[in-house]
Amino acid sequence: MVHLSLDSTIKLPSGNLIPRLGFGVYQARSKECEQAVMKAAEAGYRHVDSAQGYHNEDPEEVLQVLRKSIKKIDRSGEGEPYIDLMLIHAPWGGDEGRRNNWEALGLAQKEGWVKDIGVSNFGVAHLKSLPGPLPAVNQIELHPFCQQRDIVEYCQEKGIAIEAYSPLMRGEERYWNHPVLVKISKKHKKDVAQIAIRWSLQKGYVGVLSSCDRACLPYTASFIPLPKSVTPARIQSNADVFDFELSSEEMVEIDGLDKGTEGAITWNPVNHE
User: Fold this and answer.
1) Would you say 89 is a known binding-site residue?
2) Which residues does the annotation list for site: Lowers pKa of active site Tyr (predicted)?
3) Domains of the chain: which residue ranges?
4) CA 154, 158, 164, 165 torsion: positive or negative?
5) Would you please indicate which residues are annotated as catalytic (active-site) residues?
6) Cβ atoms < 10 Å from Cβ of 270
7) pTM here?
8) Per-residue pLDDT of the chain (273 residues; tens, 9 = 90+)
9) How many CB atoms lie within 10 A of CB 211?
C-alpha cells in the first residue's frame, strides 16, 4: 500500500497538484461556513470544495476577501489571482449546452483565470460528448453504497481524477449502522465516517501518480473524498484517517455494499439527457 498522509496529492494533467483529501461545505450557512473552513485549514486541509449554488457566500463578504487576497498576492509578487479548479456543476443544457459551457471553461483556462477545469455529476455519455481536452476532474456521488463503477472505470481509463462527494452518506442511519461498517470500525477503533473516508482514499490505488501524461495511461487512481462538517471535533476526526489501513479483505467487504444507482442519496443526475 502506498503511504498516505494529509499532505498526499495527485498530479493533474496540467502538472498542478490536488490534495488527496478535500473539505466540503454543502448547506453550511454563510458565517458557519467561514468558521468551518478556518477550522479545516487549522486541521491541515488544503482543498476546499464549494459551489455558487450553495448560496453560502455573501457577495459583499466575498468581495472583501478577494480584495485582501489580491493585496497579499501583489505584495508576494505571485501575479494575478486565479481559481485552482473550476467545475461545471451538472450536465444540464443538453449536448449543445454542455459543449458551450466546456468551451467557455477552456477559454478561461487558456487566459489564465483558471488553472484546471473539470465537471461534476457527468456520466460516461456526457464525458464522451465533450469537445477538446478531457476534464481534469469529475466529481460524483461516491461512497460504499453508490460506487458508480461504470463512471469510475471510464475516468480511470482516461486519466480523469475522481472527486467523491457525500463520502459519508450524509450520516444516514440506514448506511452508518450497516453491520459491515460497524464491525470494521470497531476493529480499528475508528468511527464509521473514518472508515468510509479511508475506503475512499484507498479505493483502486495501485501506485503513485508521479505523472499524469495521458499518453502513459491507463492507470488507476483512488478517489478524492470531500467530507463535510461544521463541527470542529468532526472536522478534525475526518482528517485523522492516516494512522490506520484497511486490509484487502476489508476493502472487498465494503466493495460488496454497492447498491448501484439505488444507493444514491442525492440527486445524482449522471444519466440526465
Assistant:
1) yes
2) 72
3) 9-263
4) negative
5) 54
6) 23
7) 0.86
8) 568 899 999 889 889 999 999 988 766 666 777 788 888 889 999 888 876 655 556 666 655 655 666 666 555 455 667 889 999 989 999 999 999 999 999 999 999 989 999 999 999 999 999 998 999 999 999 999 999 999 999 999 999 999 999 999 988 999 999 999 999 999 999 999 999 999 999 985 432 223 333 333 333 456 899 888 888 999 999 999 999 999 999 999 999 999 999 999 988 999 998
9) 12
